[in-house]
Each structure stands twice: as structure tokens, then as C-alpha cells.
Amino acid sequence: VHKMLFLALPLTIAISGFSIWLGVDAVFHPVKTVFKAVGLDLNKFSPWVAIEHAFPGIGREFMPALDEGSFLYMPSLLPAASLTEVMESLKKQDILMKQIPEIESVVGKLGRVESALDPAPIGMIETVVNLKPQSQWRMKPVKRWYSDSHFPDFVKDLFAWVWPEQRRMTKNEILEELRENTDITGVAPTWLQPIQTRVVMLQSGLRAMMGAKIFGDDLKEIERVGLELEGILKQVPGAVDVIADRIVGKPYIEFHIDREAVARYGVRLQDVQDVIETAIGGMNLTWTVEGRERYPVRVRYLRELRDNFETLPKILVPTPDGAQIPISQVVDIKYVIGPATIKSENTLLVGYVTFNTRDRDEVSVVEDAQKLVAVKIASGEFKLPKGYYIKWAGQFENQVRANKRLAILLPICLFVNFFILYLDFKSIPLSLVIFTAIPVSMAGGFILLSLFGYNLSVAVWVGFIALAGIAVDDGVVIATYMKQTFAAQTITCVQDIREATILAGKRRIRPVMMTTFTTVLALTPILLSTGRGSDVMKPMAIPSFGGMSIELITIFVLRF
């Protein structure tokens, strides 16, 4: 009876840990099925539903986001926005951001360099927002259990050492203030970090953490599908900054040269094209050198003669006989609406619907988005034209690829671990007993991971693989000495077995405790670190710290 009661402790820890990892609904699904078969539906009990919502499972991501100490604000204006409007919007946003005390500097740019590798339209702004050191951030009041009590002030001061009534603002709270301050009509915002954004753009071409790529053969139809998909994705929990590409809507002025009229006036086609290029677009004639700076010297009509559609037909074109004729005599000028940018992949036109996530992991958000879109398509609320399809992309793809590799690597590591134990003890039952330390210690890692609020990532799984290698150390130490003790003594009854087991436990409990505590103490500085890089190091250390803290229970399981 005592053995069963004690074994219930590691079993409870293992079930709790795996319930936190996979979710209560997934772990207890067989139990719910049995109860439902006898007419009892657990989903109708509010306490059970509350537990399922409290433990839905640990989120998944490729790697924890590295705190770069800055933000990259990438808003996009509507395609019809002029250069002047974009510049005014940029200045206004910089002023609004600078009003937040935690902001050290704001540097924004618009447009792109003269390179085909940077196909950014004029309406796309990139603003780097640098933050001050965390020690200069504002303090926010925190109401504690003793705040409204009648304790003397000196007692409250003592409590404040453990439960302070103030805390620093978090980076997410600063981000929310930035989003509120820069909320301008007609501007579609996207917030990420500079390095993170560049990596995502190089991998997937998106300006956000994830998105849907709509493939088709007509830009207007792609934009229509994208706008409809944008409304659907805004319903997904955790999805923020949902923006569909505004593809069509850029105003253009087209000059269609009438070849018959050109021939009638005796004007060369090249002369008409030169007038259009020089008078309206401008032509660089030479460069002026001012010290180390170089500036182009451009010739074109004055702004008041070319910024009005009504005055464009009055542009003069020279004829061979020296006369000047209005350009409207040889050119048909049209005002049309066309695409701002044209993107293509795999020989098809494509449009993006990008979005980020807050307070949820990337993979879960994308999975929920895929399910919601599939439901809308099945119900007929969302229709994809024939020949059009949606492909999901983003940095979550790295996590999917890593999971496929880990699904092969992790079982191999566990099998090699068990095989080494078998080679040492030549006993499958004994090796299995020692091997039980791995699931119990992994459960401890999942519990601590949940307490710290981290998602499952490659860094976390690396920590679990390391934990699988050291979790069996204590069991090996105890089992080896027990094996030697049984071989040195003559075992004739159950009492002899118990005495030998207790002797082995007493002789090896100190080395076991030293092994565990040295591992835990070595990882403590990593868990308490707050500098750059701690966002990645902590998830790697948490599995080993939590697992080795729980693993001490398994040395008593071995003795039983």
C-alpha cells in the first residue's frame, strides 16, 4: 500500500507535466470517451471546462524572439497616397512616437534605393524606434494583498522587499502605447524588430511574422480575395496587424502617341518621347560636385505647369519647321488606375495578407487561421475563384521543418540512452526502471516551462535532449551500487533484500544529491539572467533545471 501511495506521486507529476505539454483535452481524451459512452459528458461540467481552458497545451515556435532593444515600424499607406502625403505622415508619426518617455530616438525613411532588389513603393515607411535602457523606463503601481491593509508603514516596507508595489513597464506595454499613438486613418501598421523583420523578409518575402499568399492570374481578383481574407483573419484569436495588399489603386497618367498625327505634323516619334520624358519626368543633364557631395542637375517644367492634369495637354512639342504644337495634337492623354506593385511567384501573380501575433504562439495562430478559412470555404461564405489558391508562409515554416527532424532525432536519442543502460546492466526490467526518470524529469521541465511562460521551440527541445542524458545519472549510481551490494551479500529472504537496498541508498544518497544540486546550481545564473541573449538561453536551461529538480523522486522509485 505504501509503495502504491508513493508511486502515485511521480505518476501524478508525469500526468500533470504531459497535460501541460499536450493539453488536458488531448491527454484525457480517452477518459472523456469512456465517460461519454456511459452517458456522462465532462464538457457540461464548468470546472472541467475551466481546467481545459487553463491548460490548452504549450505553444510552439521556431526560436524565442531575441530582444533587440528596438522596434521596426513598417506602415503602408494607400497606393493613391502622394509623396507629399507620405512625407507628412512620416513626420507626424515620428513626433507622436517621440512623445513616449521610453523612446530614445526615432529614425524613419520612405521609398527605396534605385535597385531592383528593394521593390518598396513610396507608400511604405520604415521607422526604427530605439528604446532607452530598461532602468530608465517608467514605474507602474501594482496593488498587493497588503496595500489596503492597516499594517504600519514599516511593516509594509518590509513586505515591499518581497512583493514590491511598483514594477517597470514591459516592452509589450510600450508597444501598445506606440500602436495607440500612431493609429492614423489610412495607414496599415506592422510592428516587429529590425533583425527579425529582415530575416523573415529574406525567408518568405513577407513584412510580418506570417501571412497568406494568394496566387492567381488577375490582380483585381487577387486584391478582392485578399480583402475578404483580411476580414476573416481578424477573427482569429491572437492575430494582430492583419493587412491585405492594396494592389490596385495607384493613379497613372498614360500617354498614347498617335502615330498618324505624328506623321502628319512631320514630328519624329523620338522627339515626342523626349518631350514627355524631359518636361514631365525630368532629365539629368550633368552633375555638380560640392566637396564630397554630388548632386544631379535636372531640367524639366516648373511644378505649376506639370502638377495639374488639365495643363498637361498644353505642353509644347517642336516641329521640323520651328513651330510649337500642343502635345494633345499628337498624344492621347489618359488618367487610369493601375497596380501599385506587381509580384509573382512560380509564374503566377501573387498578393499577400500578412499578420503578426501577440500573446499566442505562431503555429497555433496559423493552424486556427487555416481551420477558420477551411470552414468559411466549406460553408460558402468565402469563395476562391477557379485557378486561385492560398499558401501559408512565414517563420512558422522553420518550426514545422524542425519538428519533422526532431520527430526522428528525439526517439533515436531515447533509444540510444536505453540501449546504453541495457549494455551496462544486462537487464531490461532494471533498465526500464532507471529509464522512468526521463518521462518524470521531462514532466518537471514542462511544468517549469509553463510557469515561465515560454513556448516549445528548438532551443527548448535541445534542453530536453540534454535532460534525457543526465536524468538517468542518479538511477545509474544507485542501481550500480545496489547490484554490487547484492553480489557481495548472501540474499536468503525478503528482509535481506530490504536491508541491502536501504544500505545502498544510504551509501549513495550523498553522491546523488551532489550530482543533482551541482546541475541545478550551475543553471541558476542562466535562469536569473536578464541581459541580451537571455531570451534564448533561458528556454534551453529551463528543461534541465525543472527536470533535475523533480528527478530526485526517481531515486526512491528505484529503491522501491
Q: Overall 3D geometry?
A: elongated
Q: Give the proportion of residues in helices.
A: 40-55%
Q: What is the rounded Rg?
A: 34 Å
**Low-pLDDT runs:** none
Query: What is the structural class?
Result: alpha+beta
Number of E strands:
19
SS field, number of helical segments: 20
The largest sheet is:
5 strands, antiparallel
Strand content: 15-25%
Q: Note the gap between the termini.
A: 12 Å
Q: Mean pLDDT, nearest integer?
A: 86
Features:
single chain, 560 residues, alpha+beta, 5-stranded antiparallel beta sheet, 4-stranded antiparallel beta sheet, 20 helices, 19 strands, 18% strand, elongated
Task: Characterise this structure.
With 560 residues, this protein is of the alpha+beta class. 52% of the residues lie in helices and 18% in strands. The chain has 20 helices and 19 strands. A hairpin with a 5-residue loop joins strand 14 and strand 15 (324-326). Helix 1 (2-22) packs across helix 16 (437-452). The longest helix is centred in the last third of the chain and has 35 residues, at 494-528. The protein is elongated and about 130 Å long. It starts with a helix and ends with a helix. The model has no long low-confidence stretch (mean pLDDT 86).
